[in-house]
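The material for today's practical consists of a large collection of protein records. Getting from the letters to the tokens is the skill we practise here. To make this concrete, we reproduce a full record directly below:
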Amino acid sequence: MSEINKVVLAYSGGLDTSVILKWLQDTYDCEVVTFTADIGQGEEVEPAREKARAAGVSEIYIDDLREEFTRDFVFPMFRANTIYEGEYLLGTSIARPLISKRQIEIARKTGADAVSHGATGKGNDQVRFELGYYALEPDIKVIAPWREWDLLSREKLMAYAEKAGIPVEYKKKNASPYSMDANLLHISYEGGELEDPWNEPKADMWRWTVSPEDAPDQPEYIELSYQQGDITAINDQAMTPAEVLTELNRLGGRHGIGRDDIVENRYVGMKSRGCYETPGGTIMLKAHRAMESLTLDREVTHLKDELMPRYAKLIYNGYWWAPERKMLQTMIDASQAPVNGKVRLKLYKGNVIVVGRQSDDSLFDEAIATFEEDAGAYDHRDAQGFIKLNALRLAIQARKGRNIA
């Protein structure tokens, strides 16, 4: 093992990271600094402090990052209408660059020469964490225990914990059998019976949303206010980014919005089946596209749509800090200057329905678009030359016999 004096561990206080903490102490004979991030996972993070103290940790960081997460990561991503492989709203992916960033900041502050995480060698998170580390601190040493140790089953982890005297909270009778990850944007479920893509998720798996069948029989109308592509108020009540997402999660969850069941392509090469609840994000995506439809130029809209899959892949694969993602973000953010106004939505049994939009920056001209007499705002005869010019290359193909029906 290379010489490690101090390591900053991304620490939740659960079985895996508790074992990792002790394993780092035993294997590297080093000081461990723990870092626990509150990014809206909905679980109490303070118990991690007591567990870390009991393990002999003297430098413990527990940070509330909910506002930074939403403001600096979630909102910029939604300005691009980002969705991976047509389904996934990137709830886990977008949290990793923030955690990496804060870990590196703590490493610098504490004089640590290494960082560590609990991601396995099969998943995407190891890539996302470590690309972030190296992008921000090129010479940092990275310890990924799942790629080094032989504790590759829960039974071995439990045995190690028992031998080391690590207190383990055994699963309660009604505890979830799934591997779960949650933050303010989403909650994910993997493993267990979901590993068979044919199995329908059980009704009691979902935690944030009611079933659409059980949602209220009456729709609920809401209005979202936008400034430069970001939501600043709900029903005219000003809110911070984290408050916006929290409230949209509550509204969407109540109406059964945001459930998804996906088989996705991981960066490491395998396919993975996961289920997700992203109620607030689902509302945000629909509403933002509606706001842009009124305020963005046609070709700007189309260019954003062409570039979005590339942008989504960069985030999914862990390249948030890469220069190409930053370049795309500059373009995306510049496009949002006119994306101001209000969108009115109807929430009903799993559906987000746009029913109105308005903006002082609207490019919609009723005088031109009307089906009634337009008082000369548009000359229909101009369309004839437009069509003939665009048909010219098709006519040439036809004369050469290349357009055979």
The chain has three domains: 6-69+89-164, 179-296+338-358, 366-399. Residues 15 and 46 are 16 Å apart (CA to CA). The first helix runs from residue 15 to 28. Residues 6-69+89-164 form a domain with the Rossmann fold fold (CATH 3.40.50.620).
